[in-house]
Amino acid sequence: MFIKLSYPKQESRNVLLGLILVFAILDHTRMFFYYWNVNPVDISNTSIAVFLTRFLSHFFAPAVFFLVGIEVFLYAKQFGRAKLNFTLLRTAGILLLIELFINNFLYTFDVHYRTIGLFILGLLGLCLLCMIGLQYLGRKVLLGLGIVLILGHNLLDRIQFDDHSFLSICWYILHQQKFILIDEHLFIVNYTLVPWLAVLLLGYYFGKYYQSDYDVLKRKKILVTTGWLCLGLFLLLRVFNQYGDPFMWHNYADPSKTAMSFLNLTKYPASLDFLAMTLSIIFLFFGYTTEIKSRYYTFFSIIAQRPLFIYLFSTFLIHLLAVIFLWIAGDDPKAMIITSASYSKGSSLSLYGYSIEVVYGIWIGLLLVLYYIASRNYLAK
User: Fold this and answer.
1) pTM
2) Given this model, what pLDDT does residue 111 score?
3) How many CB atoms lie under 10 A from the CB of residue 345?
4) What is the distance between the alpha carbons of residues 106 and 313, in angstroms, rounded to a whole number?
5) How many CB atoms lie within 10 A of CB 29?
6) pLDDT value, residue 5
7) Is 329 exposed, middle or buried (0-12, 13-18, 19+ CB in 10 A)?
8) Residue 256: which pLDDT band, with cuts at 50, 70 and 90?
């Protein structure tokens, strides 16, 4: 994915990576084409289709951090820790630079960089930096640390900062989502270190089960058992509605709203319920697709060949298309230069947006373009 390995990759890994990329692209399409100021998870003002569009994207980040954790372990086994340290440092630096200068620009098209965010790529880079030291603790210690962080990090929710001091900024990066507005400059921290590092640590522990000499049936049993345990934990915590997520679910007269409320989990920072739910599906997917034949899922396998390129290029295409749509509609395309003012009620984008059916149509068209580009590279190899 982000660390180049020479071992044969599991087919289920390619299919999962392609599938979650497709879901991420769908949500990015929604961001730029659905009604601008509508919150997709606001139960009072959303539909099942819009809610599920957002919900499906929740699996992207957990799968990415888990898969990267697996690759870090396998890389260490193949090349040794000394070479791994160099690779982690180099890869982390590249990811941080891509986040700062490329990914932020692709989301905003603002050459003045008035909006800077710490999103998935930058946070992944920070996690890789942490792994330079943490890898020496051993698999079992890292598993214990990961479990403790996942189970207990919601206890930290009560600690809240609200200023721009160095200590506060460090805390935001560790565990508090924050939007910092200084004049016209907006700084965003969405992905926080504590829960996502924990997921990467789990992936590192499970890397042993993806070594080429590990028994396939044993791996399947471990993954399936872990998946059902995680799902049971999620259901237990969510039904009792006391711990695991800062936002409790509610009963509505409409059963569909009750279901959406039950599944409306906190992603920023990722709650225990959020991680238990998403990781359970990921474990079960890996367990039940251990011997999957990729020829039946060629589309997803090909999309997964260059995940970082597809992720960045799809964001560029989506944003560029949004500019073109504004221009065709007779509106000022400069409105798609996203700043903090873009989200205000008086913004020129406040009345912008299309139905969810249009969003899905654009998404399908984008996937066909991306598949064509990826398949040419795949065939060339």
Assistant:
1) 0.95
2) 97
3) 6
4) 9
5) 27
6) 45
7) exposed
8) very high
Domain ranges of the chain: 11-380
In the block, which residue shows the tokens 């068209």? Answer: 365
> Residue 19: is its pLDDT beyond 50?
yes
SS (H, E, C) the chain: CCCCCCCCCCHHHHHHHHHHHHHHHHHHHHHHHECCCCCCCCHHHCCHHHHHHHHHHCCHHHHHHHHHHHHHHHHHHHHCHHHHHHHHHHHHHHHHHHHHHHHHHHHHCCCCCCEEEECHHHHHHHHHHHHHHHHHHCHHHHHHHHHHHHHHHHHHHHCCCCCCCHHHHHHHHHHCCEEEEECCEEEEECCCHHHHHHHHHHHHHHHHHHCCCCCHHHHHHHHHHHHHHHHHHHHHHHHHCCCCCCCCCCCCCCHHHHHHHHHCCCCCCCCHHHHHHHHHHHHHHHHHCCCCCHHHHHHHHHHCCCHHHHHHHHHHHHHHHHHHHHHHCCCCHHHHCCCHHHHCCCCCCCCCCECHHHHHHHHHHHHHHHHHHHHHHHHHC
Name the pLDDT band for 12 (thresholds 50, 70, 90). Answer: confident
